[in-house]
Specification:
131 residues; alpha+beta; 7-stranded mixed β-sheet; globular
Length: 131
Amino acid sequence: MEMLKLRECELRMPIGLSLTACDLEAEETQHHFGIFSTDEQVCACVALVIEHHCQRCQLRQMVVEPNYQGKGVGRLLYEKVESWCRRSGVHQIQLNARTSIKDFYGKLGFNESGAEFNHVTLPHIKMIKLL
C-alpha cells in the first residue's frame, strides 16, 4: 500500500489524477518491486506487467521518493528488476518514459522507439531494452 501512495503522490496528483478502481484492480496482476529505507519506508518503487508469453514486460510508474533522488536509488531499483527479468526468461523490457526523464533510462541501456506522444497530459517516448 505504501508503494501505491508514493506513486499516487509523486506521479499522479501533480497532474491532477488519482488512482481509480480500475487502476487498483489492474495492480493485482502486476509484479511490484521496491527499495526500502532502514526504517522500512518506501524509497522507490515500480510496477511490472509481464506480456507476450512471459518474454516481454512493461515497466510502469517507476518513482523515487524526492529525498532519495540523485543518490543511485532509481538505478539500484532498475538493476534489481532487470536481474529478476533475466532470471525469469524475459527478453525485452519496454516503458513509456516521460520525456523529462528519458536520459535516465538511456543511461540504463534503453533506446527510444518511435515518436513522442502525449499520455496523461505529458509528453512521453516509448523506450525498449533487449536483454
